[in-house]
Amino acid sequence: MAAANKKRILYVQRRAPYGSLYAQEALEMLLMGAAFGQRVSIAFLDDGVFQLKAEQAPSALGMKNFGRMVRALELHDLEGIYVERESLDERNLKSGQLVLPAEVVRRAELSQLMAEQDLVLSF
Amino acid sequence: MAAANKKRILYVQRRAPYGSLYAQEALEMLLMGAAFGQRVSIAFLDDGVFQLKAEQAPSALGMKNFGRMVRALELHDLEGIYVERESLDERNLKSGQLVLPAEVVRRAELSQLMAEQDLVLSF
Amino acid sequence: MQFALLVNEGPYQHQAADSAWHFARAALAKGHGISRVFFYHDGVYNGTRLGVVPQDERHIPERWALLAKEHDVDLVICVAAAQRRGILDAAESRRHGKGADNLAEGFRIGGLGQLIESGIEADRLLVFGD
Amino acid sequence: MQFALLVNEGPYQHQAADSAWHFARAALAKGHGISRVFFYHDGVYNGTRLGVVPQDERHIPERWALLAKEHDVDLVICVAAAQRRGILDAAESRRHGKGADNLAEGFRIGGLGQLIESGIEADRLLVFGD
Amino acid sequence: MSTLHLVNKSPFEKDAFDSCLRHALPGSAVLLIEDGIYGALQGTAPGDCFGQATELQRYVLVEDLRARGFGAEHLVVGVQVIDYEGFVDLAVAHELVQSWL
Amino acid sequence: MSTLHLVNKSPFEKDAFDSCLRHALPGSAVLLIEDGIYGALQGTAPGDCFGQATELQRYVLVEDLRARGFGAEHLVVGVQVIDYEGFVDLAVAHELVQSWL
Predict the structure, then answer these.
(1) How many domains does the structure of chain D reveal?
(2) Is residue A56 pLDDT above 60, yes or no?
(3) What ipTM was assigned to the predicted interfaces of this complex?
(4) D62: closest CA among D38, D53, A24, D85?
């Protein structure tokens, strides 16, 4: 499919991992959808930035390591992996504490980016 | 059962009606439990105060009128029906706009009341 | 215009399934099409046929099925989300030796690709959740 | 000490069912009793036997059933909440002519009175929800 | 390109309403549905905020408003009350619909 | 009589944490579990608030803390980190357990 025909799809991750399954099932959908040859991006904002925290260790809870799933994003041909600066700051997270080198963007840039999509999937 | 043996049970309603079923199923439990001869109270605080708003009209949504369910509380032998003053104020609700004459209590009184229960059921 | 809908919550507990249905009905009444409703997360519970609802209350799964029948809407339950939560059609039930199935008539089990496809092909995709 | 637990959310979607199970296991390990776990709201979905879970993932309904079997815990699914959501035992299924049932072994259908009873009789009642 | 933002959460309970208002670009539309309608009430902090967001086209779904016992007379100025038919029209008129869950 | 309050919600997302802190009487205990653990993080507004609530006994569940990639070193001072065994002990020690859902 020619680039001009590809749809820009943005996955918006606003929720923390583990407390609910929203984040994990959203990633499952993204990883599946990425194979469809569209221009797929993902943005982490609000509590969604906690999904990126390094050193997640849920084995005592008997749950899958979500950080490892997030890291798999790097293996896919994504248009962009964005994390909102203001959301990180409010939660006292530094970009060095993240499981992968997401592109840190200001809220205003992220707002612009959202508005430029053909499709925004929220979970 | 002698009054001294009766348990003090408080239902805490913190959520708005219609957006979810929590409030309605909590009331269903209360109305069932009230028959058990315990000292049952209910407290509306935070978005739970919206449950008491008069003139609810959900017919266009095809949903049951929740205000009517709340009004049925008056028919039961409850120890108390409380609504938090601060929660009403934040939401610009006046006690005259409520479906039933709940006892308006200050946050500090409600906190005390919660602490004096044998059982607090949260939904 | 063709709409696709994504429903992320189960029936009754959250209003999402109601809102999606009302939107679908209003869109159809205005002459638009609803190409597909995709059920994900707890949304897969919309597809059960075992629900027992009092006569005077809305029956959410049946309401979906009726809408689908009258307007040729494709109701797709995500297989991965459904398996985890115990929503199975007859074929899935046999494959996993469960001895019972509970998918309502009018719904079908499908893959995540069908949501992506809807998102690409429909003019608008609306997400209803909590 | 005797604990009773109230679980208000279904498996997987919210952590509530996990937290309740971990609490129950820890309490039992310390020599306390769990007299009853009552499932309400979407919590009734914990009682399905139709869930299909990958081998390497926790199977929440089976985990409850195993706990109940090993420690004689009464797992009660609220009948009113369960009917609305399509969780039925064999008797309920027959009564409503549904042709299939999906309640897992180790769980039973019961009334709201049993939660109130637990609240009155147990030393502590803990609520797990979202 | 113009976006229709959907908010279905109470602004008193959850952060979706705030996050939406922080991210919606001037000229885009915001429709409050379900418990989101509480974000447009007069005399409340979220309502004041919504009323002041004059750079946005602001809508409230009447079916959800009435269900909860409120009417247009309870809303801050500048907000339009629409029904499901109007909701469909808004979705048609905007190329992108973004839900704040 | 003493109460153990349970908070399982992120303070950034929902109002349960705030409401709990507004209602918990001095001397009562507050245990943060699940996404509630985010309420005890250093250098955040909710964490500052939790740290200043010295009239409360404050606890965080370690299993939930570690799952999310944090440890005791990320928490405000005055907070005790306990495991599920400690959770059970707290529930035994308090006559009433109140969940803020």
Answers:
(1) 1
(2) yes
(3) 0.97
(4) D53
**Percent residues over pLDDT 70 in chain A:** 97
E13 and F12 within 8 Å at the Cβ level: the answer is no
Q: Which domain holds residue D30?
A: 2-128
DSSP state of A94: -
Per-residue pLDDT, B123: 85
**Which residue numbers of A have CB closer than 8 Å to F's CBs?**
15-20, 46-47, 50, 53-58, 60-61, 63, 67, 90-92, 97
**H helix runs in chain D, sequence order:** 16-29, 60-71, 79-85, 90-95, 113-121
Min Cα–Cα distance to chain F from E10, Å: 10
Strand order in the sheet with E29-32: E79-82, E57-61, E29-32, E3-7, E96-100
pLDDT of residue A114: 98
Contact (CB<8Å) D26/F87: yes
Question: Of all helices (H) and strands (E), which one includes residue E45?
Answer: helix E45-52
pTM of the model: 0.97
The encoded tokens of residue D84 equal: 């609305």
Tokens linked to C32: 């638009």
CB B75 within 8 A of CB E25: no
pLDDT exceeds cutoff 80 at F82:
yes
Mean pLDDT, residues D63-87 taken together: 97
Q: Chain F residue closest to D123 (CA)? A: F95
DSSP F66: H
Tokens (6 digits) for F61: 């569940």
What are the tens digits of pLDDT across the range F3-53? 999 999 999 999 999 999 999 999 999 999 999 999 999 999 999 999 999
Q: What letter does residue C11 receive in the DSSP assignment? A: T
Q: Is C80 noted as a catalytic residue in this protein?
A: no
Yes or no: say if F18 and E12 are a contact pair by the CB < 8 Å rule. Answer: no
Homologous superfamily of the A3-122 domain (CATH): DsrEFH-like (3.40.1260.10)
Banded pLDDT at A3 (limits 50, 70, 90): low
Residue with tokens 């606003």, as numbered in its chain: A14
Read off the pLDDT of residues C9-37 as tens digits, 9 standing for 90 and up: 999 999 999 999 999 999 999 999 999 99
Q: Which of C78, C81, C103, C104 is catalytic?
A: C78
Q: Do D41 and B9 make contact, defined as CB atoms within 8 angstroms? A: no
Tell whether C125 lies on the interface with A, counting CB pairs under 8 A. yes
Residue A77: exposure state from Cβ atoms within 10 A (0-12, 13-18, ≥19): exposed
Q: Considering CB atoms only, which of F12, F13, F15 is closest to E12? A: F15
Question: Which residues face B79 on adjacent strands?
Answer: none
Phi, psi of D46 (to 5 degrees): -60, -20
What domains sit in chain E, N to C, each tagged with a CATH number? 3-100 (3.40.1260.10)
CATH number at residue C104: 3.40.1260.10
Q: Label residues A82-97 b or e (16+ Cβ within 10 Å = b).
A: bbbbbbbebbebeeee
Chains E and D touch (3+ CB pairs under 8 A): no
Please name the residues in contact with D20: beta carbons below 8 A apart, sequence gap of 6 or more.
Answer: D5, D7, D37, D126, D128
CA distance D48 to D74: 16
With H, G, I as helix, E, B as strand and everything else as coil, classify residue F6: strand
